[in-house]
Structure formats: C-alpha cells, structure tokens
Amino acid sequence: MIGKTIDEIKAGDTERFSKTVSESDIYLFAGVTGDMNPAHIDESYAAGTFFKTRIAHGMLSAGFISAVIGMKLPGPGTIYMKQELKFLAPVRIGDTITATVEVIETTPEKNRARLKTTCANQDGKVVLEGEALVSPPKKK
C-alpha cells in the first residue's frame, strides 16, 4: 500500500484520525518513551498540579498527527521531515482527540508538502497546533 504522491495532493486536502485516550495509553507511552513524569502517571502528585489530575503526554497527541500523515495524508511511504508544535491545552484520560492534517502547499520539484497539523478534543477545543514538512511517496 502506497500513499498519495505529490501529484495526487493539493492545498486544502484534509484527513483526520480520532482516538479516546485511555489510562493504558498513557502508561504504555510512558513505558515506551521512558517519560515517567508524575504529572502523567501519579494521580496523587497530579492532584497538586495546576491541572488537578493526570494529563497525557503532549507527544502522545502529536503521535496522532503522525498516524494521519503515515496512514492517510499523504499516507504510507511518506517521510516525515519536520514538525513544529504548540501545546495549547491539556489532554486528560477519557478525552477523544481528533488529529487533523491539511495540505497548505506542495512543492512538486522538491517532492515536499507543507501541512497544517492540529489536535482538538471532543468539545472542539484545540489542544495542539503546528506545521509539518513531509516528502510524499514517489510514483507507484
């Protein structure tokens, strides 16, 4: 399976991926990455923070953007080159996060696409925004 080539995408193309964040997701992410920050895994510690409860790792939400890029737009075979992120709000256990990727522009001669990347929760609140640069797969 190969994703869309540079000639098959255009500005405005958009794809999404949604996932409800579970406690297991947070523990698995902590284990895989080694990020055991108590704000993520220790409820009694987190209760004393600004957020009053555990929050998901910011990079877990960013990973949902990677899912869109790697599986949908442009899709399989895409090379991720750059990602800028701004974390705007916390993600809590039980939040459903929708990652959205929209093509801003393409540069066919360099096989590059610039993408707007956002994640929003079930209430439509944007929790993360940024921009990515990718190299879509070559012709099939």
Write up this protein.
With 140 residues, the chain is of the alpha+beta class. The chain has a single domain (6-135), classed as Hotdog Thioesterase (Thiol Ester Dehydrase, Chain A, Roll), CATH 3.10.129. It has four helices and five strands. It has a five-stranded antiparallel sheet, covered by helices on one side. A hairpin with a 5-residue loop joins strand 4 and strand 5. The longest helix has 14 residues, at 58-71. The model has no long low-confidence stretch (mean pLDDT 97).
Output the keywords:
single chain, 4 helices, 140 residues, alpha+beta, 5-stranded antiparallel sheet, Thiol Ester Dehydrase, Chain A
Over the alpha carbons, how many angstroms does the gyration radius reach? 16 Å
Can you tell me the CATH architecture? Roll
Category by helix and strand content: alpha+beta
Tell me the CATH superfamily. Answer: Hotdog Thioesterase
Described by the principal axes of the CA atoms, the overall outline is elongated
Distance between the termini: 10 Å
Report the count of strand segments. Answer: 5
